[in-house]
């Protein structure tokens, strides 16, 4: 009896989920229509994606942090513009400690 109830409940759950999925995949809300119109018909190739990133970086809109190479904190996504850096060392070795003030993430690099 329990097995029949289990499979009956699973079937009902599947029917509800399937109906909702079919409905939601056909009808887009009005606010999403401009975003959907901007999407390309086919996914871009890897080469095209790299071109777009390089073009965006070339405009100076994205600030890449030296020496980490990050554009944002890997923990909290805070912009690299807000990173704090401390430099330690002498003539032979220089160490840069980069940290995010928002979440406390840090990375140490030898330059």
Structural overview:
By secondary structure, the chain is α+β, with helices and mostly antiparallel strands. It is built from 3 helices and 3 strands. A 3-stranded antiparallel β-sheet has the order 1-2-3, with no helix packed on it. The longest helix is centred in the first third of the chain and has 25 residues, at 2-26. The relative contact order is 0.09.
Keywords for this entry:
3 strands; 15% strand; 111 residues; alpha+beta; three-stranded antiparallel β-sheet
Average pLDDT, rounded to a whole number, is 85
Question: Beta-sheet strand percentage?
Answer: 15-25%
Total strands: the figure is 3
Helix content: 25-40%
SSE order: HHHEEE
- Poorly predicted sequence stretches spanning 5 or more consecutive residues: none
Number of helices: 3
The structure class reads: alpha+beta
Question: Which word captures the global form?
Answer: elongated
Could you give the order of strands across the largest sheet?
A: 1-2-3
Instruction: Determine Rg (CA atoms, Å).
Output: 25 Å
The largest sheet is: 3 strands, antiparallel
Q: How far is it from the N-terminal to the C-terminal residue, by CA?
A: 70 Å
């Amino acid at each position: 009896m329990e097995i029949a109830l289990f499979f009956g409940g699973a079937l009902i759950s599947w029917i509800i989920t399937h109906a909702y999925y079919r409905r939601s995949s056909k009808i887009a809300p009005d606010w999403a229509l401009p975003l959907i119109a901007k999407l390309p018909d086919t996914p871009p190739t890897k080469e095209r994606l790299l071109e777009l990133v390089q073009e965006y970086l070339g405009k100076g809109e994205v600030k890449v942090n030296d020496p980490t190479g990050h554009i944002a904190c890997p923990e909290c996504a805070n912009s690299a513009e807000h990173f704090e850096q401390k430099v330690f060392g002498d003539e032979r070795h220089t160490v840069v400690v980069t940290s995010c003030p928002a979440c406390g993430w840090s990375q140490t690099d030898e330059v």
